[in-house]
Amino acid sequence: MDTYGNDGSGGAGAGRRTFGIEEELLLVDPGTGEAVPLAGALLDLYVRPLEVASGPVLTAEFQQEMIEVVTPPHATLASLERDIITGRGIARQAAEDVGVRVAALGTSPLPADPHPVQLRRFRAMAEEYGLTAREQLTCGCHIHVSVESPEEAVAVLDRMRNWLPVLIALSANSPFWHGVDTGYASYRSQVWNRWPSAGPLEILGSPDAYHQLVHDMVSTGVALDEGMIYFDARLSRHYPTVEIRLADVCLRPGNTVLLAGLARALVETAAREWREGIEPVAVPSALLRLAAWKASRWGLRGELLDPHTHRPAPALGVVNSLLHHIHGALKDMGDLHRVEDLVDRLLAEGTGAVRQKEVLHRTGDLERVVEDAANCTVSTS
């Protein structure tokens, strides 16, 4: 996946747009539920199984209390789903080898004292950004979707930006922070947006404009390097993909599968609009920030901002608008029925945030919230 093109391996290629997932998981003590800084020990012992030599891998992240599971690119939702489940299983076993568990939680429900991984870049970030960096123990889900050219990539960023806040609502899985109920469905979004380089993009129109913006941001010295360009969706620095970055890590594997299916269809729909000469919707990024805040606050249990009118609307109606918007792409890629089923299940069962709060209401114990989350993380049902 290191060049743009039509060979079906990295670029969209003959109508087969590939996609892959990066999921960040918390490492938690099985007894207390607290986040524990054992990523280094885990990765020192971790050996990639031979039977999944081309499958998901585990990598380090910013804090030692978390690891990341990365899948390779896939052409079908079914094969990606298998790797998401496999990757979480590998993470579970690796965690058990050092006496901990993995939990797909956007934030730690219990108080935590994060420890940055001891790499020069991470140490520099911790020194430069102070409390923002020190408290940045958040777990997200990043979705890479292949594109055929830099021109298509930027056209996609321009045309799907007004739909991205809906993914925050669908993935919301972080209602607790330092032992407190925040009142947010996705408090991770609030913590993440403390980074000065995070948030929505304006419409850019060309690869040159995108790269000039990145260059200008790094030149200010506020963003230390290109890796710190934390747009809600951005061009990957290493692969011919658009990377959608604003979702919480999902509690259940099925919710991650749903996000992936929606993300690929959003990219495909945006690319088709570009090829058909449809101009992007000229909504200011300030309104997109408000839409993201609304989604972060309420998840699916309240109103969102309608991506067409930018006015409050019931969450169910906004989700249905999203499905209508990407219906053709979902159908053409064979994902329609699976995505519709997963949406129905999510609406019936609630997001990860809803489940966390229900467990707390039932047990009165945040440790039980973490325990339940660790069980859901590796569930295949």
Helix fraction, binned, reads 40-55%
CATH architectural name: 2-Layer Sandwich
Tally of structural domains: 1
How far is the N terminus from the C terminus? Answer: 32 Å
| Inertia-based shape | globular
Question: What's a concise summary of this model?
Answer:
Its EC number is 6.3.2.2. The chain has 381 residues and is of the alpha+beta class.
Structure in words:
The two termini are about 30 Å apart. The chain has 15 helices and 11 strands. A hairpin with a 2-residue loop joins strand 6 (about 175) and strand 7 (about 180). The longest helix has 23 residues, at about 255-275. Strands 1, 2, 3, 4, 5, 8 and 9 form a 7-stranded antiparallel beta sheet that branches. A two-stranded antiparallel ribbon has the order 6-7. Helix 6 (about 165-170) packs parallel to helix 10 (about 285-300). With about 375 residues, it is α+β, with helices and mostly antiparallel strands. The model is unreliable at about 1-15 (pLDDT under 50). The protein has one domain: Creatine Kinase, Chain A, domain 2. The protein is globular.
Features:
381 residues; alpha+beta; Creatine Kinase, Chain A, domain 2; seven-stranded antiparallel β-sheet; two-stranded antiparallel ribbon; 11 strands; disordered N terminus; EC 6.3.2.2; Gln_synth/guanido_kin_cat_dom; Putative glutamate--cysteine ligase 2; glutamate-cysteine ligase activity; ATP-binding
